[in-house]
Amino acid sequence: MTTTGTAPETRSFEADVARLLHMMVHSVYSDKDVFLRELISNAADACEKLRYELLSDPALAGEDGQPRITLTLDPDARQLILEDNGIGMSEIELAEALGTIARSGTRAFMERVAAAQEGEGAQLIGQFGVGFYSAFMVADRVDVYSRRAGADTAAHWASDGLGSYTIQRVDPAQAPARGTRIVLHLKEDAASYTEAFTTQRIVTAQSGHVPVPIFLKEKPDAEEKQIADGAALWTRPKSDITAEEYTDFYRSTAGQFDEPALTLHYRAEGLHEYSVLAFLPSMPPFDLFDPDRAGRMKLYVRRVFITDEAQILPRYLRFVRGLVDSNDLPLNVSREMIQESPVLAAIQKGVANRILAELDKLAEKDADAYRAFWQNFGAVLKEGLYEDFSRRETLLGLARFKSTVSGEDWRSLKDYVGAVKDNQTAIYYATGSDLDRLASSPQLEGFRARGTEVLLLTDQVDSFWVTAGADYQGKPFKSVTQGLADLSLIPLADGETAPAQASAEVDGFITYVKGVLGEEVSDVRASERLTESAVCLVAPDNAMDRQLEKMLAGAGRLDHAAKPVLEINPRHELIARLGALAEDSGLREDAARLLLDEARIADGELPADPRAFSARLARMIGGAIQ
Prior knowledge:
With 626 residues, the protein is α+β, with helices and mostly antiparallel strands. The strands form 4 sheets. A 9-stranded mixed beta sheet has the order 1-6-5-4-7-3-2-8-9. Strands 16-15-18-17-20-19 form a 6-stranded mixed beta sheet, sandwiched between helices. A 5-stranded mixed beta sheet has the order 10-11-14-12-13, with helices on both faces. Strand 12 and strand 13 form a beta hairpin. The chain starts with 8 loop residues before the first strand and ends with a helix.
């Protein structure tokens, strides 16, 4: 002990601190890397405090006026040392900041700023004494040496985090000339934090944009190198940032290797102030259909990384990469639950609305670029049609579809509504898993005969959002495979002629088929929608669409399926021949059941009884060649 020092005094942590230590280690943070973010945040905070103090007392800068944070690695001693040249702390301030939970230094400083009504001069980005304790996740002992700016004395704080700490005055030579040095004696399983690659990776990812330059020394006697320049890209004017810089930032932030298809950089001002730097990838991320469907926007508060799990954007915008930097959100121990903040709710709403507005502009200005976007991310964006009622109208305007008239292109609902036929009161659609098979579905025949466009929906989410009460410009969505077709009021296309009325024999045959099939179907009826095929299956009026029913049944979420309706084309030549069969013909019943199996096969299903189907088919063929 030096002549200017004092004997160490042992003190107990307050009960709140003891509970906090346990919480930090066992429940608050799931990722131990966060300790470095916390310590750098506190160091940057100390530098910002000094910058504010310098406004009234420039002499505090001494000979070291530029703020900086230095990380020193000592693999041999298994130590990580973090030093800043910020405001520093006296012995009393160390005890108050690190011995109690309520007096964090930042809080006291904020009260001083508020009292002086000069708060615009300081950017306080941490609460020292809260995040600091996360150091004990990786260290079994922590030493803190600090010297307040302008003071002649220094202090030393030490603890193993198990309930008590020691504090003493020490020779100023043991502390920085100004600021704080934190020495982490790392646990055995945390030795990797003395590796330069690991430490630099964490700093770049989590703290690379704090407003203080960060330097790294790979060994105590090594030459330092700068690993963060203290300038956040998103705080710079857009005119000063090149496309290459945006791309490099996107790739490092998103972990992608493509070029961003769209870059959105702006600052929101008003009730809440925040900056946004968001990127639309040009290629789908590998985790686009992750079952968790989590967003990947990072949240910063005054340039300090907080979390990438705040769900800033709704899940249907999870392909967007980037960050939001808020000036208004608090930085404290509850930051892991920050998503409950009403400030964040306002940010979430504003950012989502702005991104959708930018997509709308892209669709108007660059149809090819928007077509590429929709090809990559349309299936995800359509999830919002089911999940986000408040923005459904906007999302419907952004949606693009394949249809019976689109060919290789995509159609918007605006295009669709602009081409509706006389007396058409609904937007018709068909759902399925295969576009080609869907386009050739027999249920579409009557619509084609009238030149009526049908949307062909092949994404899984399509079966859900169309049933959620959606409409566009007053026209509801109606499935062509559900209920009655109701096509009688829509005129036939040019060149099409109205079909002749069915004969009495055919009407009698349809009644016969209904009697034979009995409980296998809910109804058998003459079809308006068929013009070329003999039969098809549709869902009853009040039942769910058959494609949705299949999906729910396949996922084990459907107790029982509704019985389908068998529609028979009364004008088809085969049906006319079957109607002419004698009532006592042995083929009549086989024909009735084969028609149901034919409809199942056309719908992508297997016959209910393949063996019986084969036997009936053999009898029918045998009877035909006699």
